[in-house]
Amino acid sequence: MLTVPTLTLLFICIVVGLAAAFIWMFWEIEQRMSKLHQMSKPYRKSGRVG
């Protein structure tokens, strides 16, 4: 059976891991949206709808 300090450490590790996963996910989404935004800029300047 796990003791209270061990369970606390396990809980903290799980929370930190989930936080890191969400930060990584939002970073990847932001990078892809930035690329799409940069690709659409020349079309807007030329007047064409993309």
Q: Please estimate the helix content.
A: over 70%
Helix segment count?
1
Radius of gyration: 21 Å
* Global structural class: mainly alpha
Give average pLDDT, whole number.
Answer: 86
One letter per element, helices H and strands E, the order comes to H
Fraction of residues in β-strands: under 5%
Shape designation: rod-shaped
Task: Count the E strands.
Answer: 0
The termini sit apart by 61 Å
Which regions contain 5 or more consecutive residues with pLDDT less than 50?
none
Main beta-sheet strand count, sense and barrel state: none
Write a compact overview of the structure shown.
The protein has one helix at residues 4-46.
Describe the protein's architecture and organization.
The chain is mainly alpha-helical. The protein is 86% helix and 0% strand. It has one helix and no strands. The N and C termini lie far apart (61 Å).
